[in-house]
Amino acid sequence: MFRLSCEQPEAGCGTSMAPGSELSRAGDDVSGLVSCEEVSAVLHAHRRWDDGATVRAISHAQHLEKLMSMGQSPLPVFTHKELYDNQSLDPVISRVMFFVDRGRRPSRRERVLEANETVYTLRQWGKLTTRLGILYRVSKHPVSKKKIFQYVVPVSLRGLVLKGVHDDAGHQGQQRTLWLTRQRFYWNSMEKDVKEYVAHCKRCVLSKAPEPEARAPLVSIVTTAPLELVCIDFWTAEDSNNKSIDVLVVTDHFTKLACAYPCPNQSAKTVARVLWNNFFCVYGFADCIHSDRGANFESSLIAELLQLSGVGKSHTTPYHPMGNGQAERLNRTLGGMIRALPARSKAKWPQMLNTLTFSYNCTVHETTGFPPFFLMFGRTPRLPVDVMFESVLLDGDTVDVDKYVQSLGEDLREAMTLAQQHASKQQKRQAEVYNRRSKGHSVEKGDRVLLANKGERGKKKLADRWDSAVYIVVAKNSSLNTYRIQHPTTGRIKTVHRNLIMPVNFLPLPSWEEPESHGYLSSGDVF
């Protein structure tokens, strides 16, 4: 029990409450505690509060209407009659409702006259029921075991149901969407339709990775002599002053010889100068230079330099670093060697690059079975440890120049033959291991594909994984797993790797089309 005290209406209304024990101690004489004016004040305050709630509700509704974007219609709400009429006008559900309302299964003779889908639905006989004329399938929650009344959805409403449980529910995966559907609805092909709808959903296709992601078989580049193919790439790291240092990494594909040159920048002029002064004039001119599609490697200056030198040029497909895998692998190895340096040496790692690459070139390479230095120069390099123990480390017999040249040639020819055999064996083994995980649907000429969205700027975590344009495959190179794809409207042709495209033959050209409608009755013609 509480004490309530009020002031006059003219002065407003206020209350103060105290425990009922005080009131109980006031004795039996409680007359006069509440006057007529006080009661009037309480009633007046309640009326003002009720009126205020109505005003606030109207204001809130008007505010929501202003927030609704132009052209956006409110959520449709189907009446009981509309839902009943949609079931009644469905040729399958109407027949099921007839038998359920009759309370008796159809006889064998009656089943012969019914459509296959009707007979299939009637297999749920023990779970079918009607409530206020509406047909339901009664199921149980898998955990709580509570009854779930699933509305049997006619064809006319299935598209709207799928949109509601998927598009309007966060574009979740097949299993989650199917769970949402099963908690509310039922129709014969529900699981198949849900999975197909999610798999072909425009937003899901563009924004999510396919399962499984494409992984084309590994194709190895084969070379047979030093400087037949030289791979180049840039690698960047910070020095002790947190200043970015660009390093031009150059590696010979056959011998695996590695070179690393610190550069002030990644401009084409810098690349041309370093290649000429530090590589071509030391090791000789390569048959071909291989790189990614960076502007510094694809510039007219580099093209002119290579043309004057008689050097060919090749490049990877866009956004596919595996196409220059040897340079990428050397970048990782170089980073690991720098991290392993002592703190004092690590602080000046750009000055240590020659030492690190020399050490790398002096050790045996897993692919060839020989040190890169030996395959390039035909001799074993002399190391500091050789100087320390020269009294016990015996070299070959001293010979004259002619015999040395002859011996060198024989050793190099034998080493190159063995290196080719060893490299071929290792490449085959690596390809077998990699190809065990290769997956993805076959893509043929004429197929429709989406191109991976690798050029998105800004917050890439939120960007669509695939470009919305649907391309046509116009050519296929099976040996390299590359494809030429054409934009349907601009006609522009791109060469891309298999891992960067996804077959989408279910999508129309040149633009998306809405699914076919099967409407009978609707609420405001919203579906």
Entry keywords:
5-stranded antiparallel sheet, 5-stranded mixed sheet, 527 residues, nucleic acid binding, 14 strands, single chain, 3 domains, Gypsy retrotransposon integrase-like protein 1, disordered C terminus, RNaseH-like_sf, alpha+beta, Integrase_cat-core, Endonuclease III, domain 1, Nucleotidyltransferase, domain 5
Describe this structure in words.
There is one protein chain. The chain is α+β, with helices and mostly antiparallel strands and 527 residues long. The chain has helices at 20-24, 36-67, 80-88, 91-102, 108-113, 116-122, 155-165, 174-182, 190-199, 202-207, 268-283, 295-298, 300-309, 325-339, 343-346, 353-362, 372-377, 384-388, 401-435; strands at residues 128-131, 134-140, 147-152, 185-186, 230-238, 244-252, 258-263, 288-291, 312-315, 448-452, 466-477, 482-486, 493-497, 501-503. The chain has 3 domains: 9-67, no CATH class; 80-200, Endonuclease III, domain 1; 230-434, Ribonuclease H-like superfamily/Ribonuclease H (Nucleotidyltransferase, domain 5, 2-Layer Sandwich). The radius of gyration is 39 Å and the shape is elongated. Residues 6-30 and 512-527 have low confidence and may be disordered.
